[in-house]
Amino acid sequence: MKRLTRAFSVIFLIAFGLMYLTYYLNQAEGYGGKNTLTVYNWGDYIDEELLEKFEEETGIKVIYQTFDSNEAMMTKIEQGGTTFDVAVPSEYAIAKMKEENLLLPIDHKKLPNLKHIDPHFLDLPFDPQNKYSIPYFWGTVGIVYNKKMLKDKEIKGWNDLWNPDFKNQILLADGAREVMGFSLNSLRYSLNDTNESHLQEAKAKLDKLTPNIKAIVGDEIKMLLVNEEAALGVVWSGDASEIMGENEDLEYVVPEEGSNLWFDNMVIPKTAKNVEGAHKFINFMLDPENAAKNTEYVGYSTPNAEALKLLSEEISQDVRFYPPPELTKKLEVYKNLGKKMLSHYNELFLEFKMHRK
Amino acid sequence: MKKKNGLGPKLYLAIVFVILYAPIFYLMVYSFSSGEKMYNFEGFTLKHYKEVLQDTRLLIIVLNTLVIALLSAALSTILGICGALAIYYVRNLRTQNALLTLNNVLIVSSDVVIGASFLILFTIVGVKLGFISVLLSHIAFSVPIVVLMVLPKLNEMSPTLIDAARDLGASRWDILSKVILPFITPGIFAGFFMALTYSLDDFAVTFFVTGNGFSTLSVEIYSRARQGISLSINALSTLIFFATMIMVIGYYFIAKRNQRGAGMGVGK
Amino acid sequence: MQIRTRNLYLIPYLTWILLFVVAPILLIVYYSFFNVDGHFTLGNYQKFFTPVYLKMTLSSFWYALLITGISLLIAYPTAYWLTKTKHKQLWLLLIILPSWINLLLKAYAFLGIFGTYGPTNKLLESLGIGTQQILFTDFSFLFVSVYIFIPFMILPIYNALEEMNHSLLDAANDLGASQWTTFRRIIFPLTLDGVKSGCQAVFIPALSLFMITRLVAGNRVITLGTAIEQHFLVTQDWGMGATIAVFLIIAMAFIMMLTRKRK
Question: So where does spermidine get bound (chain A) (predicted)?
């Protein structure tokens, strides 16, 4: 008993000591104060020096909180109970959040820097007139392939994936919309198709891809491709640009049959308490210099036309990540298909995964 | 007294330990790589350690994680002991099994389900999301494992021991503190360490019930996956690992010297 | 007097059960009766009995069984020999220590270790076996799962072994029993309770395993846990996810009934 009491007293003592230290640090950092702004973003999706710069310029202390998926983030915002002033969801999530009244309208008058955004990326179907969201980064879905491993066989489109030579060579991203989408695209259907026979056709075509697929994975796909675990991967362009810097044999292509165009936009969720500060933050991120710095750090494609001019030509002239208008015309943004249809897509994707066994 | 291990058993244990520590050494090696990610080891550098030490936000998160882990493990151990005693004292076998089944619900439930339902509960009851809600959840999901670790010990205890103590006029508190608790101490420590493990490992539940600026290390690590986990996390884990290792070994030998043979208690 | 003693321990425990077990179960059951559009339905239960989900259930049970069996096979000798080392408690702590490092980080490390150009394949090559695909196979899945769960198996067995009455062993020795007979007739039966609680602590969570199925098995293994994850986080079809969760709870209750001790 004595031993137990002593052990537990020590544990509580250490815990309370650490708690005090945390409290002290929080105070010292200014997190305890009134003038704070909570930014809810993907982990490591911002150059943290910019946060410091923002704090210096405005005197607002930024609390940076992170999420690991759009859906989980939406659940948190929907349930409330905690403050988020700015969040960065992807476009299909924005459409959903709009529908469920989870967003506050954005006052464009408070965003003088909005003029720097390339008009191509404004007024898109998921958010007409950008009433609720402002572009942060954008990109495509495509194929990364290893030139050395494929011995210079050229990859042009989705249909090349079905080449019998690529047995056990393909990694897929674990997303129902992405995988069903490229199968639909390869059949020249829209990736927002809801026609049942088209969907069944796409699923049947995927089943035939089974022998070529090595694995269906998440974010670790980048590590696997750099390590040459597989020769091909279906990935988001942001991931592609990152890993191409690490393995020079990797090449990225936006498939000729068409593909997905995605956006991560800044929004103000209904849980916001510092709406004024949120506008300031969004405007700050739209500043060409800041946007350019952020793009250099994160490595995704920026929608900010002025920022692009500040970046080196190596980045701004790269057609793989800043494709010319002829190509972007073929790209489609995901439409919000509704919960039922999304469920159906996932059901088909699940069946396809089970088929692989 | 007891037979010592021969070469075979020693080799077997050595292999088990090598495998258990292999991924951790892999992580540590990369914390010194001058690259940015956990592949293609480049040159040797200490820059990731420097990054960690300069990052106050990360430091606060680490401290949060430790506070939650220690407090929740200690409190859930106390609650778990009550639970095990409660189940032990219930004589009806059916009630006992019913309680045990309820006990195990949280172990079998997927973290996401637990997280989502706790989130709904907390918002219904009106608990502010943050430190308290995370602490409560961690206590909640650690209790069952403590019960599972303590209960077998209680069952091993011969009932005559308690009867004898009672016949000798021991009060209820005496029986608990002088007979039962010393006997089940190994189970209690086992439960505590398992609870600590659960708390440190948990991502999904914490994610759902946290808020208002409060974050733990797992949440931070998982949400960095999209951008690729940077090696500063490896450096941080290495530091934490060595700190715990030194603490564990240090505490073990101090306890050993003070108590002559009775260790810190996971064993006898 | 005795009844009051009982009640005292039950109060905090039952409060916990009511708040964090019964209430969430009720919520889960409630959700399982709603479809994606928020209408009342029994369709989720119907869907659970379609071949896709039944196949998934079977494979979940099969893998959980394998994981538990292999963990037991490895954990028992480990625990047994640990009790015979000097500084045994320290060694035991060192068994638990690795589980305090974040799982995602360890999983990434395993991706590197098992990779085509990783250390494991280098070793195989130098042994003359040649490079094998280890990642994304049943082997890597089982290996990493067992790796995660093994402390949960070792700990209760170790405790049971420690509590064993050693005079029984001496008696058996004196009577000339072989080591194997001693183990089979005395040691194993005496530690059965520890083995049981170890199996529960492994089998039950193994049923709802996720993430590892994607990370090291590349979605070649689909468990009920993965499906719940999908429904809650991707489709946001909480109803179907809750339905699977209900089935997991029922399955667990059933297992508890099977392994309950008889007085």
Answer: 92
Rounded to an integer, what distance in angstroms lies between the CA atom of residue A134 and that of residue A114?
A: 8
CATH fit for domain A2-137+264-322, picks 3.40.190.10, 3.40.50.150, 3.40.50.800, 1.20.1530.20? 3.40.190.10
CB < 8 Å from C in window 159-178 of A: 168, 171, 174, 176
Q: Which residue of A has its CA nearest to B255?
A: A3
Distance, CA of A111 to CA of B220 (rounded, Å): 30
Question: Which 3 state secondary structure label does DSSP give A138?
Answer: strand
Distance CA A231, CA C187 (A): 53
* DSSP bridge partners of A138: A263, A301
Task: Check C233 against A72: CB less than 8 A apart.
Answer: yes
B-C CB pairs within 8 A amount to 271
A210 contacts chain C (CB < 8 A):
no
Quick one: fold of B56-226? MetI-like fold (1.10.3720)
**DSSP helix/strand/coil, A24:** helix
CATH 3.40.190.10 boundaries in chain A: 2-137+264-322, 139-261+327-355
Domain that holds residue C148: 51-259
Q: Which of C36, C115, C220 sits opposite A356 (nearest CB)?
A: C220
Question: Nearest Cβ partner of A22 from B64, B188, B259?
Answer: B64
The complex scores an ipTM of 0.88
Q: Is C88 on the interface with A (CB under 8 A)?
A: no
Domain A139-261+327-355 is of which CATH architecture? 3-Layer(aba) Sandwich (3.40)
What is the number of domains present in chain C? 1
**Per-residue pLDDT for chain A (357 aa), expressed as one digit of tens each?**
778 888 889 889 999 999 999 888 888 877 767 789 999 998 778 998 999 999 999 999 999 888 888 888 988 898 888 889 999 999 989 998 999 999 999 999 999 999 999 998 999 989 999 999 999 999 999 999 999 999 878 899 999 999 999 999 999 998 889 999 999 999 999 999 999 999 999 999 999 999 999 999 988 898 899 989 999 999 999 889 888 988 899 999 999 999 999 999 999 999 899 999 999 999 999 999 999 999 998 888 999 999 999 999 888 888 889 998 888 888 999 988 888 898 899 989 989 998 865
Residues 6+ apart with CB under 8 A from C49: none
A242 touching B (Cβ < 8 Å): yes
